[in-house]
Design brief:
The protein is an alpha+beta fold and about 290 residues long. It has 14 helices and five strands. It has a five-stranded antiparallel sheet with strand order 2-1-5-4-3. Strand 1 and strand 2 (about 155-160) form a beta hairpin. The model is unreliable at about 1-5, about 10-30 and about 115-125 (pLDDT under 50).
């Protein structure tokens, strides 16, 4: 798409396109779309975007008008998006912004979610919030560390192997709070830096434009943690996937475990998370030593 071809913008009867400009979002409303756009444009350098740099630039990354030009929308319309005065851009506009901001698939999906329906008109979430009895029986039958987490990373249920592996998997705990606020938990993860990046990126993805009071409580509780503030300000998005995690357990020593997360069908965001060692490995022997 050529930058000089403007995409259509929403119109107002008897007035200019879109709502009037204002430097503030509507009172009492957050502005996740605008915050995300601003954070991501600050990560794209003019050189990467193909813009010649002349003189000293006072802002990191791209200017608002540069993003608008490259995306094929007016500078005024982009300003309204970033300031929270227009919250429902078309998919075409969002795709153009994703291209300019060099977003990968996960970040593009996140952007589309932020630009979706007005959060004041969201539909109630569907699905059970309780662990089904059959899943509890499955959990107890697994002879590897396993637990059930909800969309807030609260631990809803866990087996004895999981509780022996980490107090962060105790029922009623929250993995975010444990990882950022408990020094003993932090000491267990030699890759703590990358683990925190993954978890906060997953938090960003699951919240999207659909936060709730529990998410607000967690973010408020973590706001005083410098590492969390740093990661939260990046607006990075990362989906959870299967992989390996390194843990140094105070009793059995270093472990390299596979981590798999399986969604529980028919529930509101519940997932079964299993940590398991390769069969016949030293890690498997050490894992078995967790319980008599």
């Amino acid at each position: 798409m050529r930058a000089d071809v403007l995409l259509p913008e929403p119109s107002r009867p008897g007035g200019p396109a879109g709502p009037p400009l204002d430097q503030r979002p509507p009172a009492g409303r957050s502005n996740p779309l605008g915050e995300y756009l601003r954070a991501r444009r600050e990560l794209v350098t003019p050189e990467v975007a193909g813009i010649s740099v002349i003189g000293v630039r006072r802002v990191p990354g791209l200017r608002r008008e540069e993003v608008a030009m490259l995306a094929g929308i007016s500078a005024d319309y982009y300003l309204r998006l970033e300031k929270g005065r227009d919250r429902n851009p078309s998919v075409q506009v969002l795709d153009s912004l994703a291209r300019v901001l060099r977003l990968d698939d996960d970040h593009r999906a996140h952007l589309l979610g932020l630009g979706g329906d007005d959060p004041t008109h969201r539909r109630p979430r569907q699905g059970a919030t309780e662990v089904p009895d059959s899943v509890r029986k499955l959990l107890d039958s697994i002879d590897q560390p396993a637990f059930i987490e909800d969309r807030h990373f609260d631990v809803i249920a866990s087996n004895e192997w999981a509780r022996a592996l980490s107090t962060g998997f105790d029922v009623g705990g929250n993995q975010l709070l444990a990882l950022f606020e408990d020094p003993s938990e932090q000491a267990m993860y030699p890759d703590w830096t990358s683990v925190t990046e993954c978890l906060v990126g997953s938090l960003r993805q699951v919240i999207g434009n659909d936060g709730d009071r529990r998410f607000e409580e967690l973010i408020t509780a973590l706001a005083g943690n410098p590492r969390f503030r740093e990661l939260w300000a990046r607006h990075e998005v990362q989906g959870q996937s299967s992989g390996t995690v390194r843990i140094v357990h105070p009793l059995v020593g270093p472990l390299t475990l596979n981590r798999d997360r399986l969604e529980v069908s028919g529930t509101d965001g519940l997932a079964l998370v299993v940590h398991h060692a390769d069969a016949g490995s030293v890690d498997a022997e050490r894992l078995r030593a967790l319980l008599p």
